[in-house]
Specification:
Elements: H1 9-20, E1 36-40, H2 48-59, E2 64-68, H3 71-80, E3 85-87, H4 103-111, E4 119-122, H5 130-145, E5 150-152, H6 156-162, E6 173-175, H7 179-188, H8 200-217, E7 222-225, E8 230-233, E9 238-241, H9 253-272, H10 284-310, H11 316-320, H12 323-330
Parallel strand pairs: 1-2, 1-4, 2-3, 4-5, 5-6, 6-7
Antiparallel strand pairs: 7-8, 8-9
Helix pairs in contact: 1-10, 2-9, 4-5, 6-7, 9-10, 10-12
Length: 339
């Protein structure tokens, strides 16, 4: 493998557009302007996923990275890094332990945090517990009412599968299914997927179309269909991210994607708020596609770099340390940041 990523002209062109929405590092900015991102997940059994997602967000440059999880998970996640703000606000159904610990009170405590945030990532380490799922459903409803962007992954996608009305038509949402999760979503929405065993080239062509079909079934929700290449579609436009990745498929790599998306969505908000002398006049819809492509590209480059260093021993934590390197390789700092 070479040190530099191999990029097609099409990928270079898209990444040049992504670069426009990344804020320069200016002295006038204050804490929190360049990203307040929260990951909602983390349960008794799953503490790694929300950590990897929140750390990817932080390493990509989010000013403030939060994890909102259940208390037992919070105790563990706090020991992983002092750089994250960890809030033990979620509850599993069998863990309600006081008269005041009601489903309404749990949801209220999480929802009250939303005005402090720019973006939420829902799903890493969430699990299928009914109260955890119901709380996230209520958070989604409130996020929609505030026009807040959010990412659904892992068990957050179970909500999109079982309660599609929660997200249908909401175009500030990104879904990030792997091949199995994509199949479940497609089945739930009555979208046929290409059968296994077809020739790879034909299957890739089919995938481009089926990602767009599923997006349309959800009313234009943006979907990143993860695979050998990532297909990104809002139903009208489809991008393909074909950057080389690593060959190890260890668990947790998708959490680097969700955290990266969280930070890029915060940068998108900063661009739309014109916090600096922005380049171009990119629309919200264009920027959302660029967020998705940028997150996909950075994650794939992290995977390539981590695999090059670690080979078959690669773990999800190896991707985390590669996030700033991948950013520099693909996007790089603006001159204003170096003054």
């Amino acid at each position: 493998m070479t040190d530099a990523p191999m990029l097609s002209k099409a990928s270079k062109d898209v990444l040049a557009e992504v670069r426009k929405m990344v804020p320069p590092m200016l002295e006038k900015f204050h804490k929190g302007q360049l990203g307040r991102v929260a990951v909602i997940g983390g349960s008794q059994d799953y503490t790694g996923a929300p950590y990897f997602s929140a750390m990817a967000s932080a390493r990509l440059g989010s000013d403030m990275s939060h994890v909102i999880c259940e208390p037992e998970a919070a105790q563990v996640i706090k020991t992983y890094s002092p750089n994250l703000m960890v809030h033990p606000l979620m509850r599993q159904a069998h863990k309600l332990n006081s008269a005041n610990d009601t489903p309404d009170a749990v949801a209220k405590s999480v929802i009250e945090m939303l005005p402090r945030l720019h973006v939420v990532v829902i799903g890493p380490g969430l699990g299928r517990d009914t109260l955890m799922q119901d709380t996230c459903a209520r958070v989604i409803e409130e996020a929609k009412s505030q026009g807040m962007p959010f990412v659904l992954d892992a068990d957050g996608l179970y909500l999109a599968q079982t309660r599609p009305e929660l997200i249908k038509g909401y175009k500030e949402c990104i879904l990030t299914p792997n091949v199995v999760e994509f199949g479940r979503l497609a089945k739930a929405m009555g979208v046929a997927v290409p059968p296994e065993g077809e020739q790879q080239e034909q299957q890739e062509e089919e995938a481009e179309g089926v990602c767009a079909k599923l997006s349309r079934a959800y009313g234009g929700v943006l979907i990143i269909q993860k695979g050998a290449t990532d297909h990104i579609s809002n139903g009208d436009r489809t991008l393909i991210c074909d950057l080389q990745g690593g060959r190890k498929r260890s668990g947790g790599q998708g959490d680097t994607l969700t955290g990266s998306l969280g930070t890029l969505l915060a940068y998108r908000k900063a661009y739309l708020d014109k916090l600096w002398d922005v380049e171009g006049d990119l629309s919200k819809e264009e920027l959302l596609m660029l967020v998705a492509f940028g997150g996909s590209a950075i994650t794939r480059e992290c995977s390539r770099l981590a695999f090059r260093k670690n080979g078959r021993s690669l773990q999800a934590s190896d991707l985390t340390e590669m996030v700033p390197v991948a950013f520099e390789n693909l996007i790089g700092e603006k001159e204003a940041s170096k003054l």
